[in-house]
Amino acid sequence: MKKAVVCAALTLTMSVLCHEQVIAPLYDAGSAYIRSLISGEPSSRTEDIPSFAQQMGESGVSDTLAVTLYFRYLDTGCLGAEQIGLDIRREETVAASIVKALVEGPGVSHDRLTGLFPQGARVIAVRGEGSTIYVTLSREFLGRPDGAPADWEDLEVWQEEATKRRYLAMQSLVLALTEEGRCQRVQLYIADGDDDVPERPALYWFDRTQTDVSVVLGPCARDESLLLTPNRALVMAMDAWQRKDWAALYEMLAPADGTNLPVYSVFEEKMRTRDVSLLSYSVSQGTVSMDGQSATLVIDAMIRSPLGGDAQIVRETVRLRRAADNWTLGADALDDLMVRD
Question: What end-to-end distance do the CA atoms of the chain give, in Å?
Fold first, then answer.
């Protein structure tokens, strides 16, 4: 009996020792990995860091994460979306991968979107601390905008354009990084190189009404007022119609189901021949379908045509559709609004 008790005690002791020998390294590796995520610095025990797939309980050669990036929509002050499968490399955090994708610009299939970061701008560092992500970019971010002439700093129009692009770029960082609650705020830093001490840029780089260079950009929270929502997309289309800016209106259109958009010259001639004026309008916020691919809005408007005189549009519904991830007005829906019985 005593022999059995001794054997049982010995077995229990060995189990505890083995448990500590196995669990302790795993705990240390996991702690190092969590610390590396928070600090943005690689763990000193890289051989113990689990891959993205291991964390998610998945396997595979490459690890991808579906993310939404934001870029300038046409030449407007709005930010359109691009959904991509982001390749997450082991040595980078998700935040760093998102920032690099934003700096690289949109894919060629999203031809209505344009990048906001000038050529030469580099991502120096991305790290997280608490609920804030700190992004350090090279000083080229504050330099000459793409497409600007050599004397752009002496031209008021390009000074305004550069400021607008920087502001939209900063907001694109905030929107993409705060998506799905990844963080709460983003703080931007600027540095001359990898070995320089980062500094917060002056606020006047993003807001020309700020003249005090001692006021610096602070942590920025999510602001969705720049997003191309269904309401904003329809307002932009209606505003172009009201101004009879047919080129701008054409950019907001999508072909009717099963058809193609006519070339711009044909569309412009059609609009000029109709000569329908939009005198006034109001648009609802709208609702998005459950699959997220269409939206329904309500419009009230007053229009005028040389042949039909004035006509009132009262509480009519308008359907918008997603095309390349962004909201567009169907050409058939525009025809329904312009041509009245």
Answer: 102
Report yes or no: 122 and 138 within 8 Å, Cβ to Cβ.
yes
| Spatial CB neighbours of 292, under 8 Å, sequence gap ≥ 6 | 322
CB 142 within 8 A of CB 166: yes
User: Residue 260: what residue type?
Assistant: N
- Residue 198: in which H helix or E strand, if any? none
254 vs 56: CA distance, rounded Å: 38
pLDDT tops 50 at residue 45: no
Q: Which of 36, 65, 70, 37 is nearest to 53 (CA)?
A: 65
Residue whose tokens read 């720049």: 226
Q: How far is CA 52 from CA 49, 56, 92, 177, 268, in A?
A: 9, 6, 10, 18, 51
Whole-angstrom distance, CA of residue 91 vs CA of residue 272 = 57
Question: Residue 312's closest CA among 333, 334, 341?
Answer: 341
CA distance 157 to 163: 10
Q: What is the pLDDT of residue 91?
A: 55
Task: Give 170-184 pLDDT, tens digit per residue.
Answer: 999 999 999 999 999
Q: Count CA within 13 A, CB hemisphere, residue 62.
A: 6
The bridge status of strand 294-305 relative to strand 113-114 is: unpaired
Q: How far apart are CA 41 and CA 116, in angstroms?
A: 27
Does 138 have pLDDT greater than 60?
A: yes
The model's pLDDT over 248-294, given as tens digits with 9 standing for 90+, comes to: 999 999 998 878 999 999 999 999 999 999 999 999 999 999 999 99
Going by pLDDT thresholds of 50, 70 and 90, the confidence category of residue 235 is very high
Under 8 Å between Cβ of 228 and 327? yes
